[in-house]
Amino acid sequence: xxxxxxxxxxxxxxxxxxxxxxxxxxxxxxxxxxxxxxxxxxxxxxxxxxxxxxxxxxxxxxxxxxxxxxxxxxxxxxxxxxxxxxxxxxxxxxxxxxxxxxxxxxxxxxxxxxxxxxxxxxxxxxxxxxxxxxxxxxxxxxxxxxxxxxxxxxxxxxxxxxxxxxxxxxxxxxxxxxxxxxxxxxxxxxxxxxxxxxxxxxxxxxxxxxxxxxxxxxxxxxxxxxxxxxxxxxxxxxxxxxxxxxxxxxxxxxxxxxxxxxxxxxxxxxxxxxxxxxxxxxxxxxxxxxxxxxxxxxxxxxxxxxxxxxxxxxxxxxxxxxxxxxxxxxxxxxxxxxxxxxxxxxxxxxxxxxxxxxxxxxxxxxxxxxxxxxxxxxxxxxxxxxxx
Length: 388
Hints:
alpha/beta; 5-stranded mixed sheet; 12 helices; 67% helix; elongated
């Protein structure tokens, strides 16, 4: 070890005229050949312009005397900048012999945490990376949706045991909003779709002289498939988006947080009434839509084929079995619950900003319409021999 006087370090005496106190300049004092005292103001202001100088001094002492004793108890002030200067001078690790105060441990502990090195990510192509990202997002939505369904079932059991928890007024309001207020738009769309469909079918059947079979085709297609499906798509775009927006606004305005603070379940207060109301109202809307589609088809059949409306209504029950009507109603009930569940799911996932609200509403409508079509296709395959 070199002598303290040979090192390029300031070595003021421990007593006498040396500046002392918290505002004294940062310095290193040699107590003995293998002991050093750190004193003065080791802060951002105190170290201004001397970071490299003091760090090199500490590093020179540490390299020359690895077992040196460092005494930090006489420090006037110490902040993160001063602690980092000493830490870097020590080589990124505490010296073997160190005397410090408990309040100084906190400053150095932040440098003692193990550094989390980023794991090398596999290099994926842009298309594969995008597909993987969407797959992960889809899986997260699936898990969250299953969790929401589980909470809804558990809360449903609780509501059956305690009927006072059921929000009858909320259910009634949702039935009115999703059912009664949807009748005009579904009537218009249903009538026009039925008119167009019957017109095209009549043109083809008239070519082969099979005019009467327009009742079979139109009745079966409308009551079994098109009526419930068209009503579900319209309600998903109209009522499903409104449900998502309603819950999303509650997230933005922190009303959902207020419900959680008061101990009120989101599924009991918000999700369950919407799911139950839409499962009740959508079969009725589907029946209304099917009736208007048949009315439009009957109008087109009258204009194209000269088919009497009385004959149309008389023949319809004989060529379409009641099982098709019950199948359409059953699908509509499932469609309603699924649309409301998806709308609530995306509404609860809204982040407290308007951009997230718009994205969630869009995702809710698109996902609901897609799943309605998928479920309808599954029903068509499973019940292909029912009512045909």
